[in-house]
Specification:
Blueprint lengths: L1 H5 L1 H35 L45 H27 L7 H14 L3 H4 L2 H6 L1 H14 L7
Amino acid sequence: MQWLFDNFQILAVVFLIVGSLVKRFLEAKAEERQARERMDTEGDDEAYEPEEWRMPEPPAPSVPPPLDRRMPPPIRQTAAPPPLRVDTADVELILKRQQEMEERLRQHKAARAASPKANTTGGAAATNDRVIKRATPTASTAGGVRSALQSRSETRRALVLREILGPPLGLR
């Protein structure tokens, strides 16, 4: 770096020489471009005679290929499958089982209609129970942290709250 400051005059002369060479090169390119343009415009001095213009002929309409009208092969006649043989004892067992299932379904519907939570489905009733249980004071509100973290749901809740209320991940 010190050499650059010591030999500043030499560097200035070198930059001037390189700059003048680049300038000459660019000027030569511009002169060539102008000469080409003059050559192109000089040929246009002749009288312009327009060519005869014709409208192109429209292409011939396309004709679709002929349709292949072969008939499919005839369907082979196969022997009908043998009829299923159902034993009358089996039919009686199936009917008896269906009647038992219908009776159990009627009993189940009657029990649901008689229950106090008849207006909710089983899933909604279970959700209502969970909401009621959460509303009751837990170990974390009543006492120590150790007892709160022994409960799996309270531990999960604490971790989620830490992620939400804690500093952003980029600032940790």
